[in-house]
Amino acid sequence: MVTRLGCRRIGITMRVVEAEMHPELRDALAHDWTSYMDFALPGMNWMPVPNLGGDVVKFIDAWQLDGLILSGGNDIGENSLRDTTERLLLEYFIENGKPVLGSVVACSCYKPAWAESLQNSMRQPTLQHNTR
């Protein structure tokens, strides 16, 4: 299947969880994603993207992913490896003109540099005039 945006393979980021009974962190993706993807994009090839930090772009290139979904699960700052992974993924996909979809948390936490400069410029005093 190919989406309207030309995606053949979509990657979905994973949260970081602590394994119960084991002193280690693991990547995880809720089981709901399988049924959601089957419903939303039937026949689409997708795969979980591990939190690899600086090596994640090599992973994306090797698997030829051309779309990305930023899943929820961890707050920004909770796990630096996930933060780095998702920041690099977002930069890569935007720079290469590939589509990105984010969950509510992902959308609200990641904003590009231009958004901050726009926000700062909106705080600047402006001329006000009446139009009657």
Q: Can I get a quick summary?
A:
Helix content is 38%, strand content 19%. The protein is built from 5 helices and 6 strands, in the order E-E-E-H-E-H-E-H-E-H-H.
Largest sheet: 4 strands, parallel
Outline, from the CA principal axes? globular
Total helical elements: 5
The H/E string reads EEEHEHEHEHH
Helix content: 25-40%
Q: Unreliable stretches, pLDDT < 50, 5 or more residues? A: 121-132
Radius of gyration: 18 Å
- N-end to C-end Cα span: 56 Å
Average of pLDDT: 79
| Structural class estimated from helices and strands | alpha/beta
Sheet-strand content, in percent, reads 15-25%
What is the CATH domain class? Alpha Beta
Per the CATH scheme, the topology name is Rossmann fold
Strand order of the largest sheet: 4-1-5-6
In total, the number of domains comes to 1
Number of strands: 6
CATH architecture classification: 3-Layer(aba) Sandwich
Characterization of this structure:
Residues 121-132 have low confidence and may be disordered. The chain has a single domain, classed as Rossmann fold, CATH 3.40.50. The chain is of the alpha/beta class. It has five helices and six strands. Strands 4-1-5-6 form a four-stranded parallel β-sheet. Helices cover 38% and strands 19% of the residues.
